[in-house]
Amino acid sequence: MLTPDPKIAYFSMEIGFDSRIPTYAGGLGILAGDFIRSAADMRVPIVGVTLAHRKGYFFQQFDASGWQKEEPANWIIDDFMTDTGIRATVTLEGREVQIRAWKYEVSGNDGYAVPVYFLDTDLQENSAWDRTLTHYLYGGDVHYRLCQEVVLGTGGIRILRALGYHNLQRFHMNEGHASLLTLELLREQLQKDNRSYVDMGPEDIEVVRRQCVFTTHTPVPAGHDQFPLDLVDRVLGNRDACGIHDPICHEDRLNMTFLALTFSHYINGVAKKHGEVSRHMFSSYSIDSITNGVHAENWVSEAFAQLFDQHIPGWRQDNFSLRYALSIPDEAIWEAHQHSKDVLIERTNSEVNAGFDTDILTIGFARRFATYKRADLIFEDLERLRKIARDVGKFQIVFAGKAHPQDQDGKLLIQRIIELGKMLGDDVPIAYLPHYNLDLARIMTAGVDIWLNTPQPPLEASGTSGMKAALNGVPSLSILDGWWIEGCIEGVTGWSIRADGEAPQEAGDRAKDADALYTKLEQIILPMFYGERKRFIEIMRHAIALNGSFFNTQRMMQQYVLKAYFP
Ligand SMILES: *Cc1c(COP(=O)(O)O)cnc(C)c1O
Questions:
Q1: How is the chain split into domains, by residue range?
Q2: Ligand 1, closest atom to CA 463?
Q3: For 171-210, what is each residue's pLDDT tens digit?
Q4: Which of the listed CATH numbers 3.40.50.2000, 3.30.70.240, 3.20.20.80, 3.30.70.1350 matches domain 331-549?
Q5: How far apart are CA 369 and CA 380, in angstroms?
Q6: Which of 22, 39, 287, 462 could form an S-S bond across to 271 if both were Cys, CB 3.0 to 4.6 Å?
Q7: Beta bridge partners of 115
Q8: Ligand 1 binding pocket includes 254 (Cβ within 6 Å)
């Protein structure tokens, strides 16, 4: 069944639904995909807008030295989507650029379908360069990026209108990439009575504000998209003539975050701590928080889905009921976990010949390889790592993740981890699995025994992999930042790194963090895993009951509906 009359339009530069549709780079896109899935389950009248990214977010390979190589991730769009036949145009540098809309449908667990439109400029009518605008996610330079954002924001609104969506009441910007939609809504408002941007007043801004919702995801100022004003003038035309004034222009740049902040009536960060950090960064705006989640059914392994079906019927429709995992017997939890672990170990051994053993404690780490995530923190002191494995208990670590093609430091980090893995040899087996995507993420988050996360605080806005792990009974060992500040009950749902009476330092002190990580492994986790299995399983159970039941997109969608869309 189709959404009868959508009231909400959700815009995101990336959305991840399926490993075969590589239009996502990381957490932002996975979140968008899970959000739409929950909207479909819950019959929230929403429509999604994103770009087609026909060459995807690259296919990852490594050369012999462990250096990442990228190839276009080609995929065949009409295997998955249908051409609506609907077109719209935007003007870039005075040229008309045609946009087409592909439709993808996401069905909820009772068949309700949410439409998502993938915008595409790869049309014969467009110039060769304009045709590439919807090819590469986060590719190219600032010029390319600004043009993409015009296609997404301005083009997105025009496509929705051309498709016949005239009763939309809310426009939700998932991060600032789609902020230009606000100026298009403003233009529509002015055009109603034949006015131009020059005659706009505060009441016009208010009309747009009432309709817009903005979710910010970035806790560092440099992470926010901004464009030099001369570039803006060149691409959009004279900026006064398109409504761009103070306070949207910040320090001589068009700042997409300020644009979204100015024109939104509801603004939120993605975890309580991130809300606080954002209020500090943008002190003149009122900023709330809604903590992220993951789509439970999408992330639960087959073995755990069967277990939940047996013990908690209805968990797919009511994720809160996962609290009843408290009554699932030890053996059943352990057995389901061993199934998921077998799948991961088998994949790891067949793919990179890692020689992993299913009886050994397995630690997982997989994310985008941005340097603040400090994937190599656990290698700070190799001698200590070896000594723990020798004296306390063996463990093996599996890594995965892509570095952005232009992020040389991220690539060096991957190379270093592959190199360190070779040095450690059999003392601490290390595997690096290539081409991290949705499928591999499912296998890893469900199949490891411990999910490791070591970002430098306060740079983790939320983080979601640990939530996927929790749904599969996998406890986290993580720095107290992002969602883990809310999710960690020490020794009950998992473990923090440096929480024992010592406040996590804002700057992130590498040596101290690594020391605390080693101490937890050495004194608590390894002895419990090998010597007190019952206690370990108790923590697995709590991860599901306390965290799986809460950190999901069903709860998150309820909060968006009540706080942001229709308070
Ligand atoms: C969940 C996921 C991410 C995001 O993980 P974070 O822990 O939020 O950084 C990135 N990539 C893939 C493929 C994922 O499944």
A1: 8-227+256-293, 331-549
A2: 8
A3: 999 999 999 999 999 999 999 988 887 788 889 999 999 9
A4: 3.40.50.2000
A5: 17
A6: 462
A7: 105
A8: no
